[in-house]
Design goal:
single chain, alpha+beta, 7-stranded antiparallel beta sheet, 5-stranded mixed beta sheet, 46% strand
């Protein structure tokens, strides 16, 4: 019997197995990395193509506006205080009157079509305005045509009225006779030329009635605001004075983008590029009747006009 073989002798017919070479492992790694890169490139390409595709870009519009206090009446002027400077013998009177009316407020909630844009443009516009952007590829495909023009789409317009009040305060200075202990006050003279200043404060009260709701586009809403809420007003105090004197010119506006005031005496405001939606200015010296014209432009381009006159007190001379 032949002796058995021991140790690491190979079995008959078996071949030695070579270890993987470093070069082969390197090729496998390169292949895996290439596959990942190809997948990433494919995904980026799909996303890029999607972002460059035209879509219907809409922006959610949720806005509100409030009008001026109107549709009411003024009470008569009433004197609420007075004081006399004995040294100059001038008496200062404080008067007040109250306007009670209604104030309209409006709201719009809906979507405004910005236009046919790619995703990057759409999101950029939404981000700039702080609004939420909705992109609707499926709707456009179903329509089979271009969407409606920018600015369209229907939303909900709501109108509501509330009570309001304006309290107007004016100061009058009346010259008496004499001075010091011999001062005789001039009395409560309501002559408009004695008015030296005016101011207003406004408040809004409780809601009146039920809100009215209709459907319309955002452009419809802006047109409604212009038609129902945009106002302008101008006045002067005093409006009656002696030749060579000056007056104070006041103006206010609601829902306007810019206002200008021009006088037939050459006065003009504002002096700078500011919008001047409200203002108070001292006039130049007035030697003849002056008309002050106020022109305010709204967001839609509508121009509101108002005017006021300042007249001269005739000087009578004895013959």
């Amino acid at each position: 019997m032949p002796p058995s073989q021991s140790g690491g002798a190979s079995s008959p017919g078996s071949a030695p197995q070579p270890s993987p070479s470093p070069l082969s492992q390197h090729h496998v790694l390169i292949g895996a990395v290439s596959a990942v890169i190809l997948l990433i490139a494919l995904l980026v390409g799909v996303e890029l193509a999607r972002s460059n595709a035209d879509v219907i870009c809409q922006k959610v519009m949720d806005t509100s506006d409030q009008g001026s206090c109107s549709n009411g009446t003024w009470t008569a002027w009433a004197t609420t205080g007075q004081s006399t400077d004995q040294a100059t013998c001038k008496t200062t009177y404080t008067d007040q009157r109250t306007y009670t009316g209604t104030r309209q407020s409006t709201t719009f909630h809906g979507a405004q079509v910005i236009g046919v844009l790619n995703l990057h443009q759409c999101h950029a516009l939404g981000g700039d305005s702080g609004g939420e952007v909705h992109v609707d590829d499926e709707t456009r495909a179903a329509m089979g045509e271009q969407p409606a023009a920018a600015g369209s789409n229907t939303g909900t317009m709501t109108s509501q009225f509330a009570a309001c009040q304006i309290v107007e305060t004016r100061t009058r200075v009346v010259q008496g006779t004499g001075s010091g202990a011999g001062c005789v006050p001039g009395g409560n003279n309501l002559d408009p030329r004695n008015v030296t200043s005016e101011s207003r404060t406004e408040t809004t009260g409780n809601v009146i009635g039920s809100a009215q709701t209709t459907s319309g586009s955002y452009d419809d809403y802006r047109n409604m605001v212009d038609a129902q809420l945009a106002t302008s007003s101008i006045w002067a105090a005093p409006a009656l004075l002696h030749k060579g004197e000056t007056t104070l010119v006041y103006w206010t506006s609601d829902h306007a983008k810019s206002c200008t005031v021009t006088g037939t005496n050459g006065d003009a405001w504002p002096k700078t590029s500011v919008a001047a939606l409200t203002g108070k200015e001292v006039s130049g010296k007035i030697n003849d009747k002056v008309t002050y014209n106020l022109a305010c432009t709204t967001a839609s381009g509508k121009v509101l006009h108002d005017s006021t006159e300042v007249n001269i007190i005739p000087d009578f001379q004895e013959k």
